[in-house]
Structures are given as structure tokens and as C-alpha cells.
Amino acid sequence: MTDEVRVPRERWDPKEALEGLVFEAQMDGGDAAASTSRLLREHALIAAQSICHLSAYASTERIRFEASRYVVDTVLASGLDADIRLQREQTKLVGQALYAAVRALGLRFGFDPDSAEVRGLAHETMVELAAHAAIEGEAS
What we know:
2 domains; single chain; mainly alpha; 5 helices
């Protein structure tokens, strides 16, 4: 079951918030830790967006700097860039496989796999493969 994104009200009413938390805990069988975890997950997306917005548009340079530093530190320290590292590794492996295939074909059919024309053709093929993979990724 996915968490529903709920945007908190702009004005804070502590009494109403406490009543809401009691209700939340009852929904999770009285487990305050489960309620807390769910509440934090539900608001993580809006919190991340708020921090990113502050890093670009805060009224003071200090706030922009602190928000930007938080974003960068969080991404680098927590592995949030794992998808980018995986994509780089996949691209490297595909490039190595394509290079090995071109080299094998060159040896078999008697052409120079290191010539500028063959390298250009291999590069164009990789670009087309990457574009095709990106289109398929967007479709799914």
C-alpha cells in the first residue's frame, strides 16, 4: 500500500495536530512508531521539494547556501546517486561489449576496428542504443 501525500495546512493548530496524531496512532493499532514512520514518509516528498526550492529561491544567500549544501551532502552521503552510478557502469559495460564485438568482427572480416570510420559508426550505434533505452524507460 502506497502512502498518500498530504500537504499540511499553512496555519499550525497544535490542538488539532495532536488530535490528528492520536487518530493516526489508532489507525496503526496504537503503534506510535509506525504512525511516525508513515507520517514522515508521507511528507518526505514535499519536504525534499521545499528544500530544493529554498536552495534556488530563498530570499537570503545564507539560506540558499545551507539548503544547497544540505541537498548535495544528502545526495553524496546517502547513495541517492546510486542510479547515476549504475547507469554509468551499464554504459561502460555496453561500450566494452560493443568494442569487443567490433574488434572480433574486424579480425574476422579483415577491417581495422580502430579506424576513425569504424569508431564513428560504433559511437553512433551507442548513441542510438542509449536513446532507444531512454525512450523505453520513459514509456514504462
